[in-house]
Amino acid sequence: MAPSSPILPKTTQDVDESKYSRHGLSGGSTTSSLGACLKGRRARTVLYASLLFMGSVWLITHFGHKSWSIRQANTVDAHGQAMKPDQQSSNDAAAIAAVEGDLTEALDVGLPFKQEKEQVTETEEEKEKPLPVEAEVRKMMQRYPVLVFSKSYCPFSKKAKEILATYKYKVPIQIVEVDLRDDGPEVKRALTLMTGRSTFPNVFINGESIGGGDEVASMQHTGQLVDVLTKAEVLA
């Protein structure tokens, strides 16, 4: 009989091989296991990327088509007529302004607002048409040689009234506080149409406007005011 080979102690490699054999793995290294793991991660990455791409395509297709349909519908007005490019641009600008919260801009470009405000547009004929209050103003001019249209809170009106009050008149000076009248805006409009002055005070001597507070103060300073009043024969 041939002598049997001696039993040698197991090396580290032998121990590793027996361990991998028990777990169903081959070889003495972890190369195969690592490759399988990497292969699994790559597959999952490709799968996730594919799902993400398909989802993006679906979103773009679905909502993009809906947005295009809405835009096409918005290019037709209430009568079914196609809107002009400038009209469509105006509506788009109005919608954007409304979304951003700029209601003022939205109203300017014509976006409908829930509470419509009445806008009064005056034609040239309406501007030239005499106002009922204008007749009253002319009657006061004829009745009072010295007439002042004032505002009770206005410092310029106060200055003019103080200067005029230093003189004595045959007919007492008449002061009309426009801001205390119910028809104050109409009186102001009538005076503007008659004299071209829209500010107060408006001082009249014998039916003619001599100006406001600054003019009266300047005339008083130069001595011209007393000459005007004397020539108008209104002083007592």
Automatic annotation (TrEMBL):
<dbReference type="InterPro" id="IPR014025">
    <property type="entry name" value="Glutaredoxin_subgr"/>
</dbReference>
<dbReference type="GO" id="GO:0015038">
    <property type="term" value="F:glutathione disulfide oxidoreductase activity"/>
</dbReference>
<dbReference type="GO" id="GO:0005801">
    <property type="term" value="C:cis-Golgi network"/>
</dbReference>
<protein>
    <recommendedName>
        <fullName>Glutaredoxin domain-containing protein</fullName>
    </recommendedName>
</protein>
<dbReference type="InterPro" id="IPR002109">
    <property type="entry name" value="Glutaredoxin"/>
</dbReference>
<dbReference type="GO" id="GO:0005796">
    <property type="term" value="C:Golgi lumen"/>
</dbReference>
<dbReference type="Pfam" id="PF00462">
    <property type="entry name" value="Glutaredoxin"/>
</dbReference>
<feature type="domain" description="Glutaredoxin">
    <location>
        <begin position="146"/>
        <end position="210"/>
    </location>
</feature>
<dbReference type="InterPro" id="IPR036249">
    <property type="entry name" value="Thioredoxin-like_sf"/>
</dbReference>
<feature type="region of interest" description="Disordered">
    <location>
        <begin position="1"/>
        <end position="34"/>
    </location>
</feature>
<dbReference type="GO" id="GO:0034599">
    <property type="term" value="P:cellular response to oxidative stress"/>
</dbReference>
<dbReference type="GO" id="GO:0000324">
    <property type="term" value="C:fungal-type vacuole"/>
</dbReference>
